Amino acid sequence: MTFDADDPVVKLCAQGMELEGEAKPAQAMALFQEAWNIAVNNVQKFTAAHYLARHQNSVEEKLGWDQTALSYALQIKDESVLAILPSLYLNIAKCHEDLDQFTVALKYYQTAADHLKDLPGSGYGDMIRKGVHAGIERMANLTSD
Q1: C-alpha span between 126 and 5 (Å, rounded)
Q2: What H or E segment, with its residue span, contains residue 103?
Q3: Which residue among 24, 32, 69, 117 is buried most deeply as judged by most CB within 10 Å?
Q4: How many CB atoms lie within 10 A of CB 35?
């Protein structure tokens, strides 16, 4: 998915990522929240929600923002969005796993697996693939009892 470097939400999120790299999570969170507050379309809302999810204090809050990001991503009318779906489903699956909701987690890991074909052949794509397959394996072992 391509992002407009001049988009104000993208700029705020990029600045927030820089602050993350400088180990300044509170300042990063403030920029991601500002991005959310000014977001007006599905791409902007997805982007801001995705970054907000990374800075929540509880798994439940993270799950809520991950679900928000997914809901906006699913409304984006651009096929390039398909490449981000495996990661979003993986994030949601991991939240459910962390909440000991193993059956639900397995469902989301499997949904992520259904979308792996849309990932690029890159280090990022390989990392997501490994995470999805490892999650399915963990959940299969936990839910087979």
Answers
A1: 26
A2: helix 102-114
A3: 32
A4: 26
